[in-house]
Design goal:
about 350 residues, alpha+beta, five-stranded mixed beta sheet, four-stranded antiparallel beta sheet, about 25% helix, signal, Intradiol_dOase_C
Length: about 350
């Protein structure tokens, strides 16, 4: 496994340097160094966010979501711990009736999205039938329900990023991405090119927030369980409720606590996933982030909404973005009005990356 990971990193460095915005671009490398030297989290924004009411509004929004979705009392919620992200840890913390909403729902960590991060597995865009603007992206997929509350803050101004398109995508419970046909992505069913499950986009509101309803993603080799996030700029909106954006995006991936993943993987239909499992501590991209010296925590905070994991989750995070840096993005497939179309060159690169 280690040999495969190192091979993947070698192929990644070669493949990425072949397109604009990749790690081989000297200008992008300098931009990354500059950004990292200035900020790797939102610590410098906490005071301003508190004074402006951004934090209070986030707490209110998340508590209302939890009250609407929950199947038990607020005092029995559980939340992930604060142990290092590469160490397996128990997520439950004891909460009492006197625990404040701020203690539960205030996001005390964040991940900064870098424009040079890889878009990763099977990014998908479209033309007249683009990425759908929608909050519920699960479609007919079966799995543990998850409501994601994502907030985006400009790391330079400490203000909410308003009115930008946020795209997310992930695999389903058995590790298959929609809209892409390639060996290793399920059984490479040709009909999958026209599917759109677990993909969608929304525009941030006045406090830089969006919510998505989805299911907990499954796993596939050699990646840990994750969700992809894009911050698009200059998107084109179409009459059929879709968007397309190929430029100026910030990108990142969000992860889940290992104990939470274990609880989910023990339920149906995740138990039918036959792909090899990868732990957070063995994920090569998480490892690369550590090597780069990024201090931000890309793990979602969460509460369980009932006594059973199958009752679902509310998960949230605040993400810092630098609106000064942009890049072009690639897509593995395009969904046109009549059918989907895959991009062989991008598929080949993704197969090499195994990301």
């Amino acid at each position: 496994m280690k040999v495969y990971s190192f091979l993947g990193l070698f192929l990644l460095s070669s493949a990425v340097s072949a397109h604009p915005g990749g790690h081989g671009n000297e200008k992008s490398l300098e931009a990354r160094k500059e950004l990292i030297s200035r900020v790797s989290n939102l610590d410098h924004c906490h005071g301003r966010m508190a004074a402006s009411g951004i934090q209070t509004k986030a707490v209110e929004r998340r508590s209302k979501l939890a009250s609407k979705l929950s199947k038990r009392d607020l005092s029995s919620f559980t939340r992930r711990g604060t142990d290092p992200v590469f160490v397996d840890h128990e997520a439950d913390l004891s909460l009492t009736a006197t625990t404040t909403l701020e203690e539960i729902f205030a996001s005390n960590h964040c991940v900064v999205l870098f424009p040079e991060e890889e878009e990763g597995s099977y990014h998908h865009h479209s033309d007249m039938d683009g990425e759908y603007i929608r909050s519920n992206i699960a479609e007919d997929q079966v799995g543990i329900p998850v409501t994601l509350d994502l907030q985006f803050i400009d790391v330079e101004t400490c203000e909410p990023v308003q009115g930008v398109a946020i795209e997310i995508w992930s695999c389903n419970s058995t590790g298959v991405y929609s809209g892409v046909v390639i060996e290793g992505n399920g059984d490479a069913d040709p009909a999958n090119i026209n599917s759109t499950f677990m993909r969608g986009a929304q525009f941030t509101d006045k406090i830089g927030a969006v919510q998505f309803e989805t299911i907990f993603p499954g796993h596939y080799y050699p990646r840990a369980t994750h969700v992809h996030v894009f911050v698009h700029l200059d998107v084109e909106k179409f009459p059929n409720g879709t968007i397309r954006g190929d430029t100026a995006a910030h990108v990142g991936q969000l992860y889940f606590d290992q104990t939470l993943i274990a609880a989910v993987e023990a339920t149906y239909p995740y138990t039918t996933n036959t792909q090899q499992f990868t732990y957070n501590k063995d994920d090569w991209l998480l490892g690369m982030d550590a090597v780069r010296g990024w201090q931000a925590d890309p793990f979602l905070e969460y509460v369980r909404l009932g006594d059973s994991i199958e009752d679902g989750l509310l998960a949230w995070i605040s993400m810092g973005v630098n609106m000064s840096f942009t890049r072009d993005v690639w897509a593995a497939a395009t969904l046109y009005p009549t059918a989907g179309y895959r991009h062989p060159a991008k598929i080949m690169m993704m197969a090499c990356q195994a990301s």
